[in-house]
Every structure is written in C-alpha cells, then in structure tokens.
Amino acid sequence: MTKLTTTCFVLALSLLSYACYAQKIKVKKLEKNVYVHISYKKMGNTNVPSNGLIVKTNKGVWIIDTAWDDDQTKQIIGWVKKNLKKPIQQVIITHAHDDRAGGIQAFLDEKIPVTSTQLTAKRTVKSGLPSPQPVLKKSQVIDCGNNNLEIFSPGWGHAPDNIVVYLTKQKVLFGGCFIKSTDTRKLGNTKDAHLKLWKKGLLKVQSKFKEVETVVPGHQDWGDGRLITHTMDLLDVSLHR
Ligand SMILES: [Zn+2]
C-alpha cells in the first residue's frame, strides 16, 4: 500500500468508528415554538435518554441544557440552524451534571452565550467542564419578546444548584432532574441530592407555578402537574425506608 492509500484507509476507518460511536439526538415538538431535545449516553447495557428544551421566540432561540456531550450538542445547534433559522440567543444550564452541561464547549465554539447561576458555574468548573457565565439570579424573569422564561431556584433537591424554568406563554415547566417522570419508580442519581429539602422545594414549585400545564422532567416522558406529586411520592418512599 502506498502511503496515501494507507492514510485514506486509516481515515475511513476512523470516520466509520466515529459514525458508529456518535449517538443521534431526537427533537420532539411539545407545543408551538417549543421542542424537547433528547440525547443519549450509554451506561452499561442501557442507553440513558436526557431532555432539554428549545424555545423559539421573536427575539431568537433559547436553549435549556446541553446534550450529554459536545457531539450531540452540535447536532442540536445544527437542528436549530436548519429548522428554526434564528440565532441562538442564550443557553441556560439548570445544574452542573453532565446531562445538563456536558456539551457547553460546543456552544462556546459557536460563540453562543452559556449562562447559569453562580453556584452552577462554580460546580461546573469543579467537574472539569468550561464555565457558564454566572449571570442568572436565583429568581428572575428573562424577557424573550413574545415569551418569558422564569428562572426559579427551589433549593437543594437532586443537586444543591438545581433550578427550574417556566415558560409563561405555554405554561410549560422544565423541571430538569429536580422532577421525575411517571415512567420511573426511581429517584435516579442521588449522589448530590438532599431528600428532605427536595420535597420542600417541590412544594415551593407547586405553589409558585399553579397554572402549569406541562411538566418536562430531566429524563424520560413528560406529562402534567402530576409529575411533581409523583416525585414527592418517590421521596416519601425513600425517606421512610
Ligand atoms: Zn443531575
């Protein structure tokens, strides 16, 4: 084999292994101008899905949480470019774990601002990921033109820094890992969780967003306000074990 054919062969092989390795994201329409991005991470025998949001407004696009990694986050950016044809204005990270923040670099490469609370920024850096801009307050409304994004920090639950985001127009609550899908009977990764405070935080969320119609959890299927009470039930089981 000539040197050139060998190089081509190695290149083809690495492209092939990349194609096999890279997981494909899914984007599902939730409401008019609101989409859920779903990315995947292989953990043992299971391929764990993770949800984030894409919100289109007349001021541009807002993204809540990255995919698990940079490759899948690039796919989200590509999807927005192709389908929404508006610039991404801001990315909001709802806590510092890799299912929320693992793809920060992909946004930074495109000069898209990635933001979080101070605590999340600190914890993200600690976990070895690039820092979001620590500009979000614990309670704040972001004016997106024809929509509002309400940031709310309910206190330590799944993680000390978890926040939720409410879309005023569509009455959609993005709970992230603070809220569990009714598909699961497990609390998931609780290594950074505070079970007692978590329940108190859920009560705060419930009374703050009384009009909520759709609740999107960090993983698996979404539903209505019952996801909040379902998460409380799971916590009761764990606390009384
Ligand atoms: Zn988490």
UniProtKB/TrEMBL annotation:
Protein name according to UniProt: beta-lactamase
Quaternary structure and interacting proteins, as annotated: Monomer.
Highest taxon above the source species: Bacteria
Family to which the UniProt record says this protein belongs: Belongs to the metallo-beta-lactamase superfamily. Class-B beta-lactamase family.
UniProt-listed PROSITE patterns: PROKAR_LIPOPROTEIN (PS51257)
Gene Ontology molecular functions: beta-lactamase activity; zinc ion binding
Domain named Metallo-beta-lactamase: residues: 49-219
UniProt organism field: Microscilla marina ATCC 23134
Residues in the signal sequence: 1-19
Keyword Glycoprotein listed: no
One example of a Gene Ontology biological process annotation: antibiotic catabolic process
Catalyses which reaction(s): a beta-lactam + H2O = a substituted beta-amino acid
Record localization: Periplasm
Keyword DNA-binding tagged: no
Cofactor: Zn(2+)
Annotated EC: 3.5.2.6
InterPro entries, per database record: BcII-like_MBL-B1 (IPR047917), BlaB//VIM/IMP-1 (IPR058199), Metallo-B-lactamas (IPR001279), NDM-1-like (IPR050855), RibonucZ/Hydroxyglut_hydro (IPR036866)
Main location: periplasm
